[in-house]
Amino acid sequence: MxxxxxxxxxxxxxxxxxxYLQAYPFISIVQECGDGFEGVKAISQHEPDLIFxxxxxxxxxxxxxxxxxxxxxxxxxxxxFDEYAIKAFEAHAIDYLLKPFSKERFxxxxxxxxxxxxxxxxxxxPQLDEETITISPEQHNRVVVxxxxxxxxxxxxxxxxxxxxxxxxxxxxxxxxxxxxxxxxYYEKIMDASQFVRVHRSYILQVQQxxxxxxxxxxxxxxxxxxxxxxxxxxxxxxKLKAILGL
Amino acid sequence: MLLISELEAMSNQxxxxxxFLLISIALAAVFIxxxxxxxxxxxxxxxNYIIDSVISNVLLAIIAYCLGNILRYYRPDKNKFFYVFIWxxxxxxxxxxxxxxxxxxxxxxxxxxxxxxxxxxxxxxVAFLITGLAxxxxxxxxxxxxQRQNEKRQTETEKLTKQAELFKLRxxxxxxxxxxxxxSISALTISxxxxxxxxxxxxxxxxxxxxxxxxxxxxxxxxxxxxxxLYLDIERVRFGYRLYTLIDSKEVSNGNSxxxxxxxxxxxxxxxxIKFGLYDTIDEVLIKIIAKKEDSLxxxxxxxxxxxxxxxxxxxxxxxxxxxxxxLYLLYGRNDLLETKAEGNTFITTVKIPQND
Lengths: 247, 357
Prior knowledge:
The structure holds two protein chains of two kinds. Chain A is of the alpha/beta class.
């Protein structure tokens, strides 16, 4: 038996999938969700094998929701947006269904699920590719993080600095700091390069937050932020910072 | 359009070249008279001076006319104007030789022959002046004419480009809307075929509304709101469980139904508001559309809820309303007709449409 969850903000779109799934008794729908918040909750509660996921949804989109999951289930994207197909396969989606899709097309997607199921235990399969740079427009403007049971949406401009921490990035804002399972190189690629600078192997900081730059030890520097925080600047980071500040 | 203006230009040209011919003839007549009087002074017999005047001046007029026509189709560069001067000298010389030969052939009179020989330098100089003048005038006239044609062509091109751009901006219907609607219809066909048929009908009506009367840029507010209502009805099938809409145009429709608005101007604004409201919040979404008349402006504001804390609006991206701003600029030459503001959790987009009544 495959446990499945449908996550889509349009009730009729969910109805459509339910209708098609009637032909596959080995798949049971354990829950339907109208947005990504509900989705995250339902997934941690039911630990499904498979989710049908819409991309454009209230508050956080499908990709952002996937980022919040520690062990994401197998994903079939269902959306009218064909521009996200590449991104979806980078996120190791099993399939990508363009709305409206036919019964035959749906059948193919289910066959793929069955194939995956026989190969390996599917729940370990999908894992977001860290180095992917094709991202949805929303992901340029905000970072979605999970703290306990809460989901927070942090607009990019509220990020004071980021710090690499093993497999995680620690995101510092004036309201506190959050952990996100991503690499600092990923953020260096997607963040607005005129606002955020990788000043150090382990640090990205927002230029606007800097109040002073002071020499430090032999030929190093440190940046002092508005919050009083001191951030080391590496030898390679210093010229990048100077270029952006126009020095 | 282009053909008509070309025909017009051609007929204009014909008129001006006919004028040119008339001017040449008139000038020839004046010179014949003047020259006759001068010749009388030199006590040449009446018959002889008439022959002399007519031949020399008619020939001169023909030369001037030909010169003018050449300059109409071929004008050397401004810095080669010198060549015209040389042509002029040559032509005047040829003219002098021709009339000297013709006149001495026609008039067998020794005193006249002496006079003809003596007056040659004066004749040459006068011919040079007159042909030079003709060349100068036609140069100026035809240059001006050409410049005017070019300007006209340029404005015509600009107008066409503007029309094409406006057409494109007007047609910016989001394909996602269509695909998602089709998906909803597909879902309805099984459980609620009646509703599916109804939605197909609404979608067809809406699409027809967006496709028709392409030349008629301005429609009445009623017409535009009717189309908008169709659009909202379709969206309500998709998001009915959390989408509520309200259109208030009482203030405008009371006694004033002739308020005009550019076709399909509101739909993208409302689409934007809906998208924004639906994807930026989780609760129920109320979209309010309020039409008002302010002096000579029709003002329509679209309200949608949003979340000030997480909205990307803080970055001032303008929610993809730039195509509306561009359209309004092309139509009215103004950049101040679209305003956006946030009031608490409500985002308001206001568009103003000048009414020339």
